[in-house]
Amino acid sequence: MKKFLLTLLIIVILIGGFILYIFSSTGYFREINNTESYEVIAEIPMKGAEDFTISYEDGFMIISQDDRAGRRDGKPSQGHLYYLNLDSDNFQPKKLTANYQLPFYPHGVSLLKLDSAHYQILVVNHARGHTIEKFELFGDSLAYMVTYKDESMISPNDVIALDKDSFYFTNDHGYTSYWGRMAENYLGVAASNVMFYDGKYRKVADGISYANGINISMDRQQLLVASPRSFKLKYYDILENDDLVHDRDLNVASGIDNIELDSEGNLWMGSHPNLMAFASYAAGKKEIAPSEVIRVIDGEKVESLFENDGAFVSASSVAAPYKDLIFIGTVMDDRLVILRKKCV
Q1: What is the pTM of this model?
Q2: Does pLDDT of 246 surpass 70?
Q3: Are β-strands 106-113 and 94-95 bridged in parallel, bridged antiparallel, or unpaired?
Q4: DSSP code per residue over 12-70
Q5: In what order do the strands lie in the sheet with 325-330?
Q6: What is the C-alpha to C-alpha distance for residues 104 and 18, in angstroms, rounded to an integer?
Q7: Model pLDDT, residue 313
Q8: From 80, 107, 130, 272, active-site residue
Q9: Is 118 a residue of the active site?
Q10: Do residues 332 and 319 lie in contact, with contact meaning Cβ atoms separated by under 8 Å?
């Protein structure tokens, strides 16, 4: 009997420790203090502006929009890319893909300047399996170029162009089975990866806990990968053959999503400080989820610039500054928010 009770006690302790690990490692006990130091400049109506990227040189933003809540609830609608002139005061985005006929549920987006006249846009699309779509932007007019599709696109999340004919992308899961993905989401099993394409697809990094946002440093020597499940930002050195070598991890104490660079090369990230709350929100079980905006200076100084319990901004996924403004996009909220620091 004593042996049975001891065994039962050990099992209870292990289960309790396991549950405590899940909650503590996903930020469940994190206290959110609503930031009051910003004023709201504008709120652009847009369901699921999950990612965007800015051309600081030419003063515009490309927004990737998909109504994920509608798709979750069996009411899918065509997603779109938008062009936003950041030097205009009215903040009226132009729909770039109004004439794009193929099914489109866009996700991570990348912008690459080709020459003085036009840009290349790459965007993850979840409408026909998983693909990456390539467009070219002439002023504020978009032209579809090609679709990339491969079995290595298990669960693509974000993409970054290295040059006109090559790019990196993240798979946020390594498993396709229900239980495998549950292990990745809740146990933090590190099975996701980074892929590279230059005519052929190859894996260049793996063993990542939910590889999410991806970007390249201003000097184009390092690849930056968000690992929200581990609350880390991962740095990889880019070799001459475009392979990656892991350099280091930076603990950011929050579930960072997409990564943007400002005009000085500092990193900006929309983030999920409580992943359990985010999971419930994404599943439609909670109405709100906390948000955070994080900046990393000089590759090591981590700053939390904005926090909200979700009542104003839910599930922030991307953030970036332009002049004295801060733009925040979200996974499923119904607007893109523009803030300015209050004068003291």
Answers
A1: 0.93
A2: yes
A3: unpaired
A4: HHHHHHHHHHHHHHTTTTPPP----SEEEEEEEE-TTEEEEEEETTTTEEEEEE--HHH
A5: 38-45, 335-341, 325-330, 316-322
A6: 40
A7: 96
A8: 107
A9: no
A10: no
